[in-house]
Specification:
By secondary structure, the chain is mainly alpha-helical. It is built from 18 helices and no strands.
Length: 403
Amino acid sequence: MTKTGTLKIRRYDLDWLRVIAILLVLLFHVGMFFVHWDWHVKNNETSRTFGYVMVWLHQWRMPLLLFISGAGTIFASARRNKTEFALERSKRLLVPLVFAMLVIVPPQIYFERINNYSSYLDFYKTVFSFVPYPDGGSLSWHHMWFVLYLFIYSIIAIPLIAFLKSGRSVKFITALEKYLSKRWGTLSYIIPILITQLILRPFYPEQTHSLFDDWAYFTFCFTFFVAGMMVASSDRLWEILLLKRRFHLSIALLSLGLMEFLYAVDWNQIQPYLNVDLEIIWSINEIIIAWSWVVAVVGYGQKYLNRNSPVLKFANEGIYPFYIIHQTIIIAIAYPMIDWSQGIIVKFILLLCLSFAATVGFYALFIRPFNFMRFLFGMKPKQISSRKLAVKELIYEVQKEEA
């Protein structure tokens, strides 16, 4: 067994992948303005062509983020006992969740229902009716579902974390390394994911993100979170993903080809020639895409991204508040663009660039410099630089001598 012995060493590939995954979330949410799927605000013209990229991103962007979060959970727990870990997760996840539900998310619902209210103040009163969205109320976590689910996963995984950190896990991890080192070993994780969906999707078919009626998707996401925890517990498992990256990518590309074909064709024309419902083929392929793209991307991330840079330091610190505020900024910028006469491509590029710049700018000007804002957005307090600390100590010593 090669149990991870470097949990306190920073994995820059995970940091880069986290940043990339959330930037893909930004790209996806900008794209939502232009496709025919339901969203808060819609452009006056939609495009099916955009859907080719959107359906692909939709399958694996959040599973990748959950895998990274699971791995990060193992690294975060290495420096803390159970109580410290639970408190840290509460501070980092629950505080921003509550703040977002009261401050960040409501504007998204306001733009969606803007014609129903005389002003934002008139609308904002409905938040405190405590009627969940969309049933007439405006209290919702919207895109912050990810933060809520991540908190729940972190808490219910505490016994598993304790097991993986203990010597009791040696035989289990060793057996896992041996099995996953086989050619199809890693990809066979698709089977337990599929089983959870076969059991739960008949009862919970939709991805509602509302927790209480979202148990199929909740469990689907949890499988990726647990997978990240497992891989992070073993150096050998990291190595397996690195060594198999080309094989995993080949499967990922094949599954992508099937998905794009199914998206492009008229199902009514080809269904009569098949003995299997196309909906079943699509659903199984969704799981194959999600897992194969995650393990392929993580493998390539180890190969090319495990290095630090000043850009990464800034991005890694700010990517969490970036996630929290990005969708509200996208919607606020997109709403006035609805009836513009420019074509979709021009609007898309403009919305993407403006949203990215505005989100980074808001973070840099109003969140990063202030400890109170950093607390609300789940960040660590701003540290006093060694130079400033030395100056303060010098001033103190001078004042002490003068006294």
